[in-house]
Design goal:
Helix content is 41%, strand content 14%. It has 382 residues and is α+β, with helices and mostly antiparallel strands. The chain has a four-stranded antiparallel beta sheet. The protein has a three-stranded antiparallel beta sheet with strand order 1-3-2, with helices on one face. A hairpin with a 3-residue loop joins strand 8 and strand 9. Helix 12 packs across helix 15.
Length: 382
């Protein structure tokens, strides 16, 4: 097994991949020191699944469920888990039972299942629930329900749902924030969790002690990540970057997505104009919102011939939003009030079209990641 098998999979179901399930079960002792000593993570091994609870030290937006697009879907999912609490393994239920239960327990609004938007949210939740193995579809098709709210589907509980929610030492009613629930003040655990789950760890006000811990223990940290993941750790004045040196992680930067190409070209423009920009001592560049939006639009106007068809045809607003969200997911950008902050990781990447690039060959790319740079990555922590 590889440690990334546990990181890349939310849950490993034996029915879906028996070879991987037994490979991890037979070789997990090779990584127990990393799991217990450095991460203090809970590992659940059952007869039908394996799950590593990847608790982040500092939860980020990109760590959510990528299949969900709205808060309502998260609420539906929580209600589904409550609904399944009383269901035994292989106990069946129909979709209309679930929709009625959600309708009774959703407190934010009165759920109207005649609205296709609500049905589509529920379908996304059900598909995710099937994918992670907490329910099985026995008969019917929930896609038909998206077109007709009178359609029904037969499901069964697998009994795995009771292992999805985490238990906390503190009472939920006594918590003012997620940090009160985590109740984890161990600097070592926080450092390793941050390095494991984030594309980059910045030296920020309030967490200087964690950055200092990394500086003091950098050799041990590098050895732990090299031994368990074959990752390298690059240490800079204001940032620490875990570097992928193999191809075991799926969601990395740079990648083949059109957004990746745009960000590489954007970094080149920023570097070329660095002397004229508002660069602070913490290596953060500050743009006015409208100024940065114009920079993105000018970039598409001048270099859009090499963009993907989707990004070329997006409206200005959707194009700007897409690139900003992509950069935020890799901790390259932050937004505060009317300011756009370009974070230090952008200084380690650069890209351009090759000299013999032909405008009509849109898929022809060349990436030069700059001096000493390599792939950074996203690992979902949900």
């Amino acid at each position: 097994m590889r440690f990334t098998d546990l990181l890349e999979n939310y849950i490993i179901l034996k029915d879906n991949d028996k070879e991987l399930y037994y490979d991890i079960k037979d070789n997990i002792n090779d990584y127990m020191n990393m799991i217990k000593e450095y991460l203090s993570y809970k590992l659940i091994i059952k007869d039908n699944f394996i799950k590593l609870e990847k608790v982040p030290a500092n939860p980020q937006g990109f760590m959510g469920i990528k299949e969900f697009d709205s808060i309502k879907e998260y609420v539906f999912f929580m209600i589904l888990l409550i609904f399944l609490e009383d269901k035994n393994n292989e106990e069946q239920f129909i979709l209309s039972n679930l929709t009625e239960y959600i309708k009774q327990n959703y407190s934010e609004e009165k759920i109207d299942w005649t609205k296709q938007k609500n049905r589509r949210c529920l379908i996304n939740v059900i598909k995710f629930a099937i994918d992670i193995g907490i329910i099985k579809r026995n008969d019917g098709d929930e896609e038909l329900y998206s077109k007709d709210e009178t359609r029904d589907v037969l499901y069964e509980s697998t009994g795995i749902s009771r292992y999805i929610l985490r238990s906390f030492d503190n009472e939920l009613d006594n918590a003012n924030s997620y940090k009160d629930l985590l109740n984890e003040e161990n600097t070592k655990y926080n450092v390793y969790r941050n390095l494991l789950l984030n594309p980059v760890v910045y030296n920020k006000i309030g967490v200087e002690h964690e950055y200092d811990y990394i500086v003091r223990n950098k050799n041990e940290i590098k050895d732990v990540f090299e031994e368990n993941l074959e990752w390298d750790i690059h240490l800079y004045k204001n940032a620490i970057i875990p570097i992928i040196t193999n191809n075991e992680v799926k969601d990395v930067f740079p990648n083949k997505k059109g957004e990746s190409s745009v960000v590489l070209l954007l970094s080149k423009i920023i570097r070329e104009n660095i002397s004229n920009l508002n660069l602070k001592e913490d290596d953060i560049i500050y743009f006015e919102k409208e100024e940065f939006n114009k920079l993105l639009l000018d970039l598409r106007k001048e270099n859009g011939h090499g963009f993907t068809k989707t990004l070329r045809e997006y409206s200005d607003e959707l194009y700007i939003h897409t690139i900003k969200e992509y950069m935020k997911s890799f901790s390259m950008l932050d937004i505060k009030d009317n300011l756009v902050l370009i974070l230090p990781l952008m200084g380690k990447i650069i890209g351009d079209y090759p000299k013999d690039y032909k405008e009509k060959i849109n898929e022809y790319r060349y990436y030069d990641r700059g001096n000493g740079s390599a792939s950074c990555r996203i690992l979902r922590a949900f």
